[in-house]
């Protein structure tokens, strides 16, 4: 969370204070890389957290074995490594595309869809294809989270005491709220039809998934 906010907000605040909208080409590339790195890693960590909640509630006697320190380190390392790889691929792909539609990014930070709007004709299709692959993998993580919570809620509703159910729900609801806001706004930002696209709406949605 701190990483993704630190990538976008300080530069936006500085531009606002100095009454400018400028960012260098290398600065834009660095911002896109780090933003995509932190956002991807966060999403994978949220997926791991869903598994953690599932094991804690549905298999409490096996929690120490399944979620030991070594297992946690491996899953966290996989999340960060996957985020780094995706950020590297997307940044290299996006900035290898020739831009011929000006140099104005219609967003408060360097975002892939806004940069692709500046590309020449069909040269953006390679990056669009990579975004589709990433979207499919992200959808797989989303399905995993949903299935985990189906199992969790099924187990929680079987708990006889009201206090036990309340404790279980209080453990899961903050994570579920973050996942819902994060995933829904990203899906809307990247998959909304062109007819719904407007600078004001794009800004609000970007603020929701990148800052809030």
TrEMBL record:
**Name the UniProt record assigns to this protein:** Olfactory receptor 14C36-like
Name all G-protein coupled receptors family 1 profile domain ranges.
1-212
Q: What is the lineage of its organism?
A: Eukaryota, Metazoa, Chordata, Craniata, Vertebrata
Task: Quote the gene name from the UniProt entry.
Answer: LOC136993099
What Pfam families would the database entry show?
7tm_4
Q: How does it sit in the membrane?
A: Multi-pass membrane protein
User: Which UniProt keywords are present, listed alphabetically?
Assistant: Cell membrane, G-protein coupled receptor, Membrane, Olfaction, Receptor, Sensory transduction, Transducer, Transmembrane, Transmembrane helix
Q: Which organism is it from?
A: Apteryx mantelli
Annotated transmembrane regions: 22-51, 71-89, 131-156, 168-191
Q: Where in the cell is it found?
A: Cell membrane
